[in-house]
Amino acid sequence: MSRKTINIPLGAQHISLLEPVRFKFECENEKIVGVDSDVGFVHRGVERACTTKFKFDAVGYVVARICGLCAITHSLAYTVAAENLLGAQVTAKAAYLRTLLLELDRIHSHMLCLSHTCENAGFEAMFMQIMGDRELVMEIQELISGNRVQFDYICIGGVNRDITAELGKKILENLTLVEKKVREYKDEFLNNWSLSLKFKGVGALSLEDAYRFNAIGPLARAAGLQTDVRNEMSYLPYKEIGFVMQMQESGDIHARNMVRLDEIQNSIEMCRNIVNGLPEGEIITKIKGKPQGETIVRYEAPRGELMYYVKGNGSAMLDRVRIKTPTFSSIPAFSEIFLGQEYADAPAILASFDPCLSCTAK
Amino acid sequence: MFTSLIKSFLNLFKKPQTLAYPANAKPKEESYRGLIEYNEAECIYCLKCEKACPPGAILFPPVDKPPSDNEKNKKSLKYEYNPWLCIYCGECVRACPKPNEALWQSAKKQSVAVAEENVNGMWDAIEARKGIFTKNSSVPKE
Amino acid sequence: MQKIQSSLEKIREEIEGFYDQKSWHFLTLNGVALSNEKLEVQWIFSKYATPDEVVVYYIEVPYDVEIPSIADIIPSAIISQRELVDMFGIAVEGSTKGLYLDEDSMQTPLKGCQI
Lengths: 362, 142, 115
Hints:
The complex is a heterotrimer. Chain B is of the alpha+beta class. Chain B has helices at 2-11, 48-52, 91-95, 119-130, and strands spanning 36-38, 58-59, 80-81, 103-105. Chain B is built from four helices and four strands, in the order αβαββαβα. Chain B is elongated. Chain C is built from two helices and six strands, in the order βαββββαβ. Chains in contact: A-B, A-C.
């Protein structure tokens, strides 16, 4: 008796997709047995533009526009790489301010992912609630840097704007409100019956597979693999402000949501410690010279690990800028998780990975 | 489970969170990133703002008659700014040796460009005077 | 950052001997154009739970050789290999073109890219 399979596309245009990615699923009845993926719909040639059209001090602005949600991580990673090649140091105050904005960015990105996962499970009211509460964080970001999404806050040598004591008080007020809401959401995600039907036991990644596919970010931490770049770097003061790695064990969609909620709570705590313990000093130091040599810098974006390789040859134009984004290295892991799942769960699983295709197809 | 039912019921009596813009004005902040403003009398024509701008929105093309009798303007240049190419990052203000006297960032909003103003054609002509010809330029390269 | 040079024939055995799933994390493959005829291909690894430890294996080859694939040892390398084929035009065992670029667009944009 021959088994017939049918091909169903989860196309580049789909009602539940936020990002332009195309999967072709080979399905036998309702179970997925084969996956073929296509990324690269939004390839813009950023790596070539960074070495031909823009000088090294403008590349920080070009690179921030690769992605909307992790814009500050890209510009921070490039700026730190350029500062390494120029042999420069920034003040402690600038490092603390950079970390503050990085953690605020992580909070709003995780809230967006959680709301999108709820929408795919059919709970639209929760989607609206989380998006409405996310506005509290966007307000603080606009007051600090002037923009809601593309901050343009980091320049070579430090940061652009300072925070006053009044602004610090407003940040703490908004963060207290957000923390109260996040505790209510955690209660819902743990106890609501319809969400647990859709999330528990679906789309699981085992620890063995996480090691084999080099999984990163919340995907790996939900499966039990202890990896977080904030633990493995020394340029930013994470140890002083109380960073704690959040882990779960089951590796399914429920575990990933729990990891993200716990990370939001840890980030709020860290932001509070930064605002209360900000050191004195200048926010920007003047740097001269041209970049020479090569360097590798890694950071923890909200979706995983981001790596920059920058090579300079002593002139104003760089030799090579290589960008490795977190979703790019997770694509083999995605294709593995889909096998054996039901087709109707595919949008929910995809939303729980939190893909960012504009980062992938630079 | 019951808490979400009670919360949904109470939400019926709350105000909507939407801001009725443009019927009601949006509150303006002082930290708003607005247009770049220039004072020709204080400028020393060092051209550092032109070199620092990432998209190339500030240019100093040569003109036949200089705009004023500022003695620092030795090559007869004139300041041109394109608010629709600018990304409002403020790099030009940080590069300027006299940041609040010759060049600064205000809190004014830019206006919308309409087709009759032909802003792209005018900027292509300014770039051509500097010798920059991009691929889609409406000014042909002789 | 620690750079270790190798050669086209020996690179696969060296990576197989070096890579241990539980202690090393494979980041990506990288190509750097050195001139119009030669390019440097790098394999970048970092250690779990150790701050700032990165190891890079590299080889210098011309554009018309075939790089051996490591996708059976490290399954996540397959996507970086497809990107190398698209961007530089160099052949990698078992990888096809077409990840980012269509047939009617500019091909191999980073090959010999100098200003």
